[in-house]
Amino acid sequence: MPEKTVSPQESLRLEVRKTIAATPEQLFAAWTQPERIKQWWGPEGVTCIDAAVDLCVGGRYRIGNRLPDGKVLWITGAYRVVEPPARLVYTWQIESASQAPEIVTVRFEPRENGTEVVVIHERIPDVSTRNQHQYGWQGCLTGLAEYVARS
Questions:
Q1: CA–CA distance, 121 with 90 (Å, rounded to integer)
Q2: N or C: which terminus of the chain carries fewer CB neighbours within 10 A?
Q3: pTM of the prediction?
Q4: Residue 97 pLDDT level (bands cut at 50, 70, 90)
């Protein structure tokens, strides 16, 4: 039986958090500079093969992910809010998909022991996609923490 797709009014939301031993400025730069994105992006088993960023309101980004099976997925979107080093809001869409864009907000909140990175992913169409995003974002935040620890 196919999974029910939810309407935009009842779309799903995901929030993932991780405190990382780095400054908001370091983490914002890692999140927005293509050469740095390629070093940490993606959950375990996924390789970032390319990243392009036009970091301004209305600017677009495009990130290539090589999955463990060799398939390549391109994530693309446009920036709605760019507030260095505190917050980003952007649309999120698999390039080959015809669904409406999802929305991602990333906040970099200073803490005593580093920065709490908060990822809020909204307008998710179904539970299966939400679960995939949760796995992906948890893996991304782990990769980001490992990247800044190496840097």
A1: 10
A2: N
A3: 0.92
A4: confident
